[in-house]
């Protein structure tokens, strides 16, 4: 066993390991950039304005939610745009406001049923 040859062999192995680590670091950085582009491309920006009515998605409704129970609660009114896609909303029941992420909100369609416009005859004489 030659100590000098073993030492040189060990140095070569360490150099190869350092090259492998450098390549791995570069590949990981490229992968993260690619995934960030993919993720950012799929983010939908919400065009919500102060004063609009919205529904809030309740993500904590998991235990026995019921077959037909909706996960959307509300309506709430947007009080303030907190920036970075966050909004401050206020409920009509208690009047207190809180901040939520804009991805948990969707516009509330405030349509009322008008009996005169929506009447359909059930029987038609032929």
What does it look like?
There is one protein chain. The protein has 126 residues and is α+β, with helices and mostly antiparallel strands. Helix content is 31%, strand content 25%. Strands 4-3-2-1-5 form a 5-stranded antiparallel beta sheet, with no helix packed on it. The model has no long low-confidence stretch (mean pLDDT 83).
Topology:
Layout: H1 3-41, E1 53-57, E2 72-83, E3 86-91, E4 97-101, E5 105-107
Antiparallel strand pairs: 1-2, 1-5, 2-3, 3-4
Short description:
By secondary structure, this protein is of the alpha+beta class.
Strand content: 15-25%
Question: SSE order in H/E notation?
Answer: HEEEEE
Average predicted confidence as pLDDT: 83
Distance between the termini: 109 Å
Give the overall shape, derived from the CA principal axes: elongated
